[in-house]
Amino acid sequence: MPTSIKTPEEIQSMRTACYLAAKVLDFIEPHVKVGITTGELDRLCHDYMVNVQHTIPAPLHYCPPGHTPYPSSICTSVNHQVCHGIPGSRALKNGDIVNIDITVIKDGFHGDTSRMFQVGEVGKQAQRLCAVTYEAMWLGIREVRPGNRLGDIGHAIQAFAENAGYSIVREFCGHGIGRNFHEDPQVLHYGRKGTGTLLQTGMIFTIEPMINAGRRDIRQLADGWTIVTADHSLSAQWEHTILVTDDGYEVLTLSEGAPPPP
Ligand code: MF3
Ligand code: CO
Ligand code: CO
Asked: What are phi and psi of 70, to 5 degrees?
């Protein structure tokens, strides 16, 4: 399928959905502390989405081809977990890093964003991995403008992350988003300048690099969802949903609690 160009009305609906997704992260941040379980984070976010925002948590029972239905309302990926971590009885410990990934549906439109959170006192290496991954995402975002190509985004992310000594996960990518959770295009977080789909005003997609401190290889756990690094090295991820505008980009998943761009 070609990448859709959103109408002004669709863009306005996406602004709303994306802001609400970001506000779930703002809401949960003060709760991400030593001792809370990922299952408790899931319940808090679920109740906030459903009862306060009147949004639908898109992950709950999400069932793409080849998967069992996802059992929770958010993804919580701790330390060597790369993405799609299923919340449960695991309590966060001092020094953990955790990605919380939120996707809400409002009036039929999806907003998708994730941030890294540091639990208590986090080691220097984990801090650096989170910071480099955040900067890599933003270097990708700054390549977004009409006339550039998806490969320009992937190249910027890959060059920066690999120069820092890290590796890029290849099996998962950013994605178009709108009335569908995942639609074309696939936004690879590696690539060559000047290659791939041409960016046009009105496209909306996520940029969500997963960056490993060690090797890029991953495994899926027996739960059918949780992705971990094969070498058990730490992994980090940040995600924004981006609109291509006439003069560049608009980050749709910004909110008051989002960290400032680097
Ligand atoms: N939010 C994830 C993404 O960024 C997808 C999660 S799918 C789930 O694309 F089923 F695991 F929730
Ligand atoms: Co996404
Ligand atoms: Co996401």
From this structure: -70, 130
